[in-house]
Specification:
By secondary structure, the protein is α/β, with parallel strands linked by helices. The model is unreliable at about 1-5 (pLDDT under 50). The protein is globular, with a radius of gyration of 20 Å. Helix content is about 45%, strand content about 15%. It starts with a helix and ends with a helix. It has a single domain (about 20-360), classed as TIM Barrel. It has helices at about 1-25, 80-95, 105-110, 115, 145-155, 170-175, 185-190, 210-215, 230-240, 245-255, 260-270, 285-295, 310-315, 315-335, 340-345, 355-360, and strands at about 40, 55-60, 60-65, 70, 95-100, 125-130, 160-165, 195-200, 220-225, 275-280, 300-305, 350. It binds flavin mononucleotide.
């Protein structure tokens, strides 16, 4: 039995390392940039000086200096301790939010806890623990995690919220993927009685229907992570190729662009009302993308792959990259005459191309 457990631990460690290497070295982007279909309305006469503009937001009862989250990326293998430490240091210094990578590895294998718990050394306004929706229910060979294990994950990093990620397309292509999904919503509902929960996709987006169901069970925030950035079916396609799993490789190619475009997913999620926070994500690379997401209805944005090379290099380079994105956002706020994030949300936009087609057809739901 212990041999089986150790093999599983090794598999998870290797998978985490593969994910980072593939995202750094291969083309894993979706084939269409939906953000370029979102144009913002220029204001030639803004009655505000740049120095007066505020990028601050409130999230889970805390004040953040920039509406930018460092998205879930890693934990559980050699490179992730330094990556998580750099992210935690920068989130603390800049006063922004940070979501750790999936903590499944540490819940199942105490040897890797330190690659996550290093985050506890930093005073971060919003830090989210992370677990897959698939780990909340029984899968082949493993029991679903209950409240006790989630407490363990939260305490491990001193979290003030829990991010639950949904990633069925990725699991479907992953050679060793978990494909049970029945009961995840009920499990989220149970956990939402104890924790502040944010639910996210991993690159395939959240529809209006899913957003409504999540809101109804008490979820406080949705991170859309729609199509336009990192494709996790693409990432698993490369892993399948390495594992010589021809069928899964073919499936990964077939589903490379599967999902709801990120800008559309924001509009759909926001259409369920204002009693829930929306984080725009999936291919956010610049402050202009961030502004586009906020104008469409997001409260903030989160970035993964665009930050990865900086997060691995050093806290200084990560900090400089995030400040660049925030500065670009501030410039766009000036150009739209928006003195704060609330005003930016009202500043108006025009949709073109495939994004416009999606919205025209989906708004008849
Ligand atoms: C190297 C890497 C590892 C990731 N690991 C996780 C994870 O453990 N949990 C999770 O919820 N999302 C994970 N993600 C997904 C991101 O948080 C994000 O939802 C997705 O990559 C789309 O955003 P992007 O286009 O900015 O990369 C990971 C992303 C990257 C780049």
């Amino acid at each position: 039995m212990s041999i089986v457990v150790n093999m599983n631990d090794e598999l998870i460690k290797q998978r985490k390392a593969d994910h980072i290497n593939i995202c750094l070295n291969e083309d894993v982007d979706s084939n269409y940039d939906y953000w370029n279909d979102v144009s913002l309305r220029h204001n030639a006469l803004p009655e505000i000086n740049r120095s007066e503009i505020s990028t601050k937001i409130d999230f889970f009862g805390k004040k953040l200096n920039h509406p930018i989250f460092i998205a879930a990326m890693s934990g559980g293998h050699n490179r992730s301790r330094i990556l998580n430490e750099n992210c935690a240091k920068v989130a603390s210094e800049l006063g922004i939010g940070f979501c750790i990578g999936s903590q499944r590895a540490a819940i199942e294998n105490p040897d890797v806890i330190e690659s996550y718990s290093v985050v506890k050394d930093y005073d971060i306004p919003v830090v989210l623990a992370s677990i897959g929706g698939g780990q909340l229910i029984d899968q082949k060979g493993s029991k679903g995690f209950g409240v006790d294990k989630i407490h363990k994950a939260m305490n491990m990093i001193g979290a003030n919220g829990l991010s639950i990620f949904l990633n069925l397309p990725q699991e479907a292509v992953q050679p060793e993927g978990d494909e049970n999904t029945k009961g995840i919503l009920k499990a989220i509902e149970n956990l939402s009685q104890t924790f502040d929960i944010s639910v996210k996709e991993c690159g395939c987006g959240i529809s209006r229907d899913v957003a409504m169901r999540l809101k109804a069970v008490g979820v406080k925030s949705i991170e859309v992570s729609g199509v336009s950035g990192t494709s996790w079916t693409a990432v698993e396609c490369y892993r399948a190729e390495k594992a010589k799993d021809v069928y899964k490789q073919k499936l990964g190619n077939l589903l490379w662009d599967w999902g709801i475009p990120a800008p559309v997913s924001i509009i759909e999620s926001r259409s369920v009302g204002f009693g829930i926070k929306i984080i725009g994500s999936g291919g956010i690379n610049t402050g202009l993308d961030a502004a586009r997401a906020i104008v469409l209805g997001a409260d903030g944005v989160s970035l993964a792959k665009a930050l990865l090379p900086y997060a691995i290099k050093s806290s200084e380079s990560l900090s400089a990259k995030i400040l660049e994105v925030s500065d670009e956002l501030k410039t766009v706020m000036h150009l739209t005459g928006s003195k704060d994030i609330k005003a930016l949300k009202k500043s108006g936009y025009v949709l073109t191309g495939k994004t416009n087609e999606w919205v025209k057809q989906r708004m008849s739901f």
